[in-house]
Design goal:
The complex is a heterodimer of chains A (576) and B (161). Chain A has 576 residues and is α/β, with parallel strands linked by helices. Chain A contains 22 helices and 19 strands. In chain A, strand 11 (292-296), helix 13 (302-305) and strand 12 form a beta-alpha-beta unit. Chain B has helices at residues 15-25, 54-65, 98-107, 128-138, and strands spanning 2-10, 29-37, 43-51, 70-74, 81-92, 111-115, 119-126, 143-148, 152-155. Chain B is elongated, with a radius of gyration of 18 Å. Chain B folds into 2 domains: 2-74, Alpha-Beta Plaits (2-Layer Sandwich); 81-153, Alpha-Beta Plaits, CATH 3.30.70.1150. Classes of the chains: A alpha/beta (576), B alpha+beta (161). Chain A binds chain B through residues 138-139, 142-143, 146-147, 150, 167, 199-202, 323-325, 327-329, and chain B through 9-10, 13-14, 17-18, 21-22, 25, 55, 58-59, 62-63, 65-71.
Chain lengths: 576, 161
């Protein structure tokens, strides 16, 4: 007879004092997840996870979402984490199951997303013997996890799970992997859940240095042309309110990176748009002309800076980041401040003087008028489609994206006002991310409309998750901007490789996506004319019990503009 | 420029791989690496010698601190240290040059720890410079084989990590 884990919950734990409750490693894992408040696991079973899945068979208070490919599990856990702020949990068996998680783990690592990945492993006695479905997943994921564990003794389970969650969501968040051999899942232990962690090598600094914050305030007060360059740290630290307060008090225009979208309301008069390769011209000019830049929770990524030694060369940088290793990695800051964006900005608001920069603001408005965002030409345009989705959702949808042109158009044409509204693979640039991430986001936020903005290339990379969405009645909407190309690569070939379109034409072979959606039991709609766009979006919005895919047959040769070519400067910017 | 960094880490399986892997993927060149347990059996100490400009030390130290198993990193830039390396050098030694080699060994306060009809095996301890100097002098006799432990370093005086 199986032991009820609910009973285990009542009886075990340090509050009982003395002896813990006897249970198996698998039961201890599930009980530990429960103690961490886990509500959802995205997973896929397999031989090395059988004992854990056997425990899950009776568990009612943790929802398990069965994906159709382990990569989908990792991205869904990531989307869940980004939409909710909680730690996402995914699970896969040993060997190929574990290696299929790798892209998803790397995606989460690059974008600092809190995640715990649990993998089955062959029994301890078989490790290192090239056993069936054995892969050294702790070795493989060493460079793409914040930390990882091989649990070789069942007694370690409560401590390891406690530490894994603590590490995943504190400091600079990131993925943690727990590799769990099958015999350890079956071994017995006395379960006591630790109340605290003991990690002498891990002490994230969250409060900024007071003296440095004072000096930063002086620098901001003295600036003529200040700009705030805000990154994903704003979202991770939940610092939107502090950012708005500081920007308004010091009258500093704000540019938010792709990962910070929604970290500052895009409707705000101080908002400059996105910086970098496909950012607004005025954001890039503002950075170029700024005399003081407050960079918060951002890592001076090459897609933002272009040619590094020419980036914002008139500016002195104040660099705030929770990860000390980011400070001085790409640029040297006159004022480095290690700390959490919320704490540091909150402290900074109290120190800066109320200020006005009418000349600077007028200059920026001039650029805004001179180089507005827009598009030219006729036909079914991707920018228009995204604007219409924005209109139909009143700007309140959660937007997930794939990677490439679809991602950049979504970033440019769906203004966000709230954090955790825009979910995209920024650092790793993972095609196939958006749809499973949208599934995770919909699970985290059943109250919200979730759209995945996709391309015809990337949607096919994890299309199998349509089954997951159908089975779980998740009404995710997918807008495929179908141009029959691997669009962003095609754009680069056109612009930089004499239009030699080497292997980027996907038109032949792409299935009828409407029929494909229908084959899965989802709703499929095709749109070929601009006049059909609104009706199709309305129809998609009315579907509430299954996914709905709209195949928008957009003009084939549209480019994402403006564009600063890789390694270029604002002077190299193409505007149309 | 070569820099010696001391890294105190949890004495757990995989920690060496984590540390060495970090150097490899961040493009920091390891010149030598020595590792052993310390007075505390739960803690290992590594001395890692890296080559690169001064600025690289700060980035290495910050990246090392991101590893959960790293407890402390010292770059010894602003303090005197005791700095030692041990080498075993097997050198050709025939009747004609034995006396000469023995003289060199004496001057370097090194030891001959093995002898055969045609070779000496010399043990030398000292700073990397001293070992380099001895190796340089012995080269003309013909070094057949050698192994250096890599530098190990402790701070001078009562200071501890």
């Amino acid at each position: 007879m199986k032991r009820s884990t609910a009973t285990a919950r009542r009886r075990a734990g340090p509050e009982d004092g003395g002896k813990g409750m006897k249970m198996t490693g698998a039961q201890a894992l599930v009980e530990s997840l429960r103690r961490e408040g886990v509500e959802v696991i995205f997973g896929y079973p397999g031989g090395s996870l059988l004992p854990i899945y056997d425990v899950l068979y009776d568990v009612k208070d943790i929802r398990h979402i069965l994906v159709r490919h382990e990569q989908g599990a990792a991205h869904a856990a990531d989307g869940y984490a980004r939409a909710s702020g909680k730690v996402g949990v995914c699970m896969a068996t040993s060997g190929p199951g574990a290696t299929n998680l790798v892209t998803g783990i790397a995606t989460a690592y690059m974008d600092s997303v809190p995640m715990v990945a649990i993998t089955g492993q062959v029994p301890t006695f078989a490790i290192g013997k090239d056993a069936f479905q054995e892969a050294d997943i702790t070795g493989i994921t060493m460079p793409i996890t914040k930390h990882n564990y091989l649990v070789n003794d069942a007694a370690m389970v409560p401590r390891v799970v406690k530490e894994a969650f603590y590490i995943a969501h504190t400091g600079r968040p990131g993925p943690v992997l727990i590799d769990f051999p099958r015999d350890v899942q079956q071994a017995e232990l006395e379960f006591r859940y630790p109340e605290s962690v003991d990690l002498p090598g891990y002490r994230p600094v969250t409060a900024g240095h007071v003296k440095m914050i004072e000096r930063a305030a002086e620098l901001i007060d003295g600036a003529q042309r200040p700009v705030i360059y805000a990154g994903g740290g704003i979202i991770a630290a939940d610092a939107q309110a502090e950012l708005i307060a500081l920007a308004e008090r010091a009258d500093m225009p704000v540019t938010t990176t792709l990962l910070a979208k929604g970290g500052f309301p895009e409707t705000h008069p101080l908002f400059l748009g996105m910086p970098g390769m496909h950012g607004t011209a005025y954001a890039n000019f503002a950075l170029h002309e700024a005399d003081v830049i407050l960079a918060v929770g951002t890592r001076f990524d090459d897609r933002v800076t272009g040619k590094l030694d020419m980036f914002a060369r008139n500016a002195r940088f104040i660099h705030v980041d929770i990860d000390p290793a980011e400070i001085g990695k790409n640029v040297s800051a006159v004022l480095p401040i290690v700390g959490d964006a919320k704490n540091v900005l909150g402290a900074l608001v109290k120190k800066v003087s109320a200020n006005k920069h009418p000349e600077w603001r007028a200059t920026i408005e001039q650029w805004r008028k001179q180089y507005p965002m827009g598009w030219k030409g006729d036909g079914l345009k991707p920018q228009y489609i995204i604007q219409e989705i924005h209109r139909a959702t009143e700007g309140k949808a959660i937007i997930a994206t794939e990677v490439g042109q679809n991602q950049m158009w979504a970033a440019q044409w769906y203004p966000c006002t709230e954090p955790r509204q825009f979910i995209t693979s920024g650092g790793l640039g993972t095609m196939g991310y958006g749809f499973p991430a949208a599934i995770g986001a919909q699970v985290a936020r059943p109250d919200r409309v979730v759209w995945d903005i996709a391309g015809d290339g990337s949607i096919q990379m994890n299309i199998q998750e349509m089954a997951t969405a159908v089975a779980n009645k998740l009404p995710v909407k997918i807008a495929v901007l179908n141009n029959g190309y691997l669009g962003m690569v095609r754009q680069w070939q056109t612009l930089f490789f004499k239009n030699r379109l080497s292997y980027t034409d996907l038109a032949v072979g792409t299935p009828d996506l409407v029929k494909l959606a229908e084959a899965y039991g989802a709703v499929g709609i095709r749109v070929t004319e601009e006049s059909e766009v609104r009706g199709a979006i309305e129809k998609a919005m009315s579907v509430d019990d299954r996914p709905c895919l709209i195949d928008f047959m957009i003009v084939r040769d549209e480019n994402v503009m403006p564009m600063v070519p890789a390694g270029g400067t604002v002077d190299d910017m193409l505007v149309d | 420029m070569k820099h010696a960094i001391s890294v105190l880490v949890n004495n757990r399986p995989g920690v060496l791989a984590r540390t060495a892997g970090l150097f490899a993927r961040r493009g920091f060149n390891i010149d030598s690496l020595a590792v052993s347990t310390t007075q505390d059996p739960g803690v290992s100490r590594m001395t890692i010698v890296v080559e690169g400009p001064d600025q690289i030390l700060e980035q290495i130290s910050k990246q090392l601190y991101k590893l959960m198993d790293v407890i402390k990193v010292l770059d010894h830039r602003d303090e005197p240290v005791v700095n030692r390396e041990l080498a075993l050098i097997k050198v050709d030694a025939d009747a004609a040059n034995r006396a000469e080699i023995m003289q060199i060994v004496t001057i370097f306060r090194a030891n001959i720890v093995d002898i055969s009809e045609r070779t000496f095996t010399i043990e030398v301890t000292g700073s990397a410079d001293k070992v380099d100097a001895l190796v340089g002098l012995l080269r003309r006799y013909g070094i057949k084989e050698m192994m250096r432990t890599g530098r190990i370093v402790l701070s001078r005086g009562p200071r501890t990590a």
